[in-house]
Amino acid sequence: QVQLVESGGGLVQPGGSLRLSCSASIRTFNSDTMGWFRQAPGKEREFVARITSSFTTYYADSVKGRFTISRDNAKNTVYLQMNSLEPEDTAVYYCAVRRYGESSYAYWGQGTQITVSS
Fold first, then answer.
1. Residue 89, phi-psi category: left (phi > 0), alpha (psi -120 to 50), beta (remainder)
2. Which of 20, 31, 59, 102 is most buried by a 10 A CB count?
C-alpha cells in the first residue's frame, strides 16, 4: 500500500516562505519521479514542480525562481521550498509519484493547504 503524507502547510504573509514535505512509503522511491501539484479554489489542478530519480528538476513558469524541489532518498521524502509567496500561490498542494517507466502519476497525497494572505 503506497502512502504519501504531506506536511508543512499553513498561513503565511505575502513575501514569506514555507517548506512542504512529502513522506512516501514506496519501495521504489529512488527510481521514481516525484511531483508537486496544486489546486486553487474554482480552478483545475496544475503542475508545480517535479524531480526525477536523477535529480533533474522542472518547474511551472509561475513558480520558477521562487520554488525549489528537492528529495532525500534516504528518507523517502520530497520537499518543496517556497519563497516569495504570493496570494496567487494559495491552494491545496499535493505530492504525487510517477513510477519508473510510467507516464502518469499513480499515487497522490491527501493535500496540504497553503494560504498566502496578509
1. alpha
2. 20
Distances (CA, A) of 95 to 39, 49, 55, 82: 12, 10, 16, 14
Q: What is the pLDDT of residues 73-117, one digit of tens each?
A: 999 999 999 999 999 999 999 999 999 989 999 999 999 999 999
| pLDDT, tens digit (0-9, with 9 covering 90-100), for 22-79 | 999 999 999 999 999 999 999 999 999 999 999 999 999 999 999 999 999 999 999 9
In three-state form (DSSP H/G/I as H, E/B as E, the rest C), the secondary structure along 20-85 is EEEEEECCCHHHCEEEEEEECCCCCCEEEEEECCCCCEEECCCCCCCEEEEEECCCCEEEEEECCC
Separation of alpha carbons 9 and 86, rounded Å: 14
